Amino acid sequence: MPQTQNKPAAKPSNQGARRRSKVFLLVLVAVFAWGAVKAFDQLGRIQQKNAELVELKGKLAEATKVNDDVKLELKRLQDPEYLKEQIRSQLNYSEAGETVFEVPRSR
C-alpha cells in the first residue's frame, strides 16, 4: 500500500473578505459619527429657534395689546362726549361763558 501523506487541506483565503468587512465597518462608524455630530448641531439650533419663538410670541402679545388699546381709543374718539372731555382736559378748552381755573398741584 502506498503511503499517502495527509496534507492539510488548503484553506480558502478569507483575507479579502475580512478586509472588506473592516472597511465597511469603518465607513459605517464614520457615517454614524457624522450623523451624531449633525444631530447634535441641529439640536442646538432647534433650542435657539425655540428661544427666539418664545421671545417673538411675547412681542406679539404685547403688540396685540397695544393694538387693542389703540382700537379702543379710536372707538372712544368717535363718541362726541368723550371727545369733548379730552379736548377740555388735554387742551384746556372751555365753552363760551365758562371760566377755567387751574389749581396748582402740590409737589
Describe the model.
Helix content is 70%, strand content 0%. The protein is built from two helices and no strands. The radius of gyration is 43 Å and the shape is rod-shaped. The model has no long low-confidence stretch (mean pLDDT 88). It comes from Paenibacillus aurantius. Residues 46-73 form a coiled coil. This is Septum formation initiator family protein. One of its GO terms (biological process) is cell division.
Number of helical stretches of at least 4 residues: 2
Q: Give the N-terminus to C-terminus distance in angstroms.
A: 135 Å
What is the general shape? rod-shaped
Give average pLDDT, whole number.
Answer: 88
Largest sheet: none
Q: Look at the helices and sheets and give the structural class.
A: mainly alpha
Order of helices and strands: HH
What proportion of the residues is helical, as a percent range? over 70%
List how many beta strands DSSP finds.
Answer: 0
Proportion of strand residues: under 5%
Q: Which ranges are low-confidence, i.e. pLDDT below 50, for 5 or more consecutive residues?
A: none
Radius of gyration: 43 Å
